[in-house]
Design brief:
Largest sheet: 5 strands, mixed
Strand order of the largest sheet: 1-2-3-4-5
Strand content: 15-25%
Order of helices and strands: EHHEEHHEHHEH
Number of strands: 5
Radius of gyration: 17 Å
Structural class: alpha+beta
Helix content: 25-40%
Number of helices: 7
Amino acid sequence: MCATYTYTKDVAKLALLEKLIIHGVLRRGVLRPTDLGPVIVPELAVFVEVDDEAVAFIVALTNLNEAIEDFNGRLGPLNLMKLLFRMKLAGVGSTRVPLMGVKKKYRNHPLMGAGLAMMAIDQLRQNGKRLGKKTAELGWILEDNKATNNIIRSVGGVHYKTHRIYEKALG
């Protein structure tokens, strides 16, 4: 049996942290629930479970870049007040997805690999729409990660930027 779970209450931030720690996404002691604030919204963290085992997840964060785009790199008192207003009252219409994954034993499965990722993305989309989010950036994916790039394209993602990693031996 396959089910998608999402956290819907603000008090679930602690449960979300525990889930991320249990599944190896975070180390214990890295964050406290009070650190999460308005950046991590529990409804934007989705875990897909098969037989009570978390096998896929996706976490979207509030896009702070949207909130600070007119600050010109300065976070003075006025800009800090603007940031707080935008985060708490006005809202930010976009998210960034820095964490997404499927357990290794399911990744190359012909039916479940991409399907589990698609389930997580679909649930995240539904939750995001309900929260008034209009876009999500799924960046920082290497161009040779064809499986993930194909999944993003299949759900309507548009490639607009390429980040490359170059390597050179030193010495």
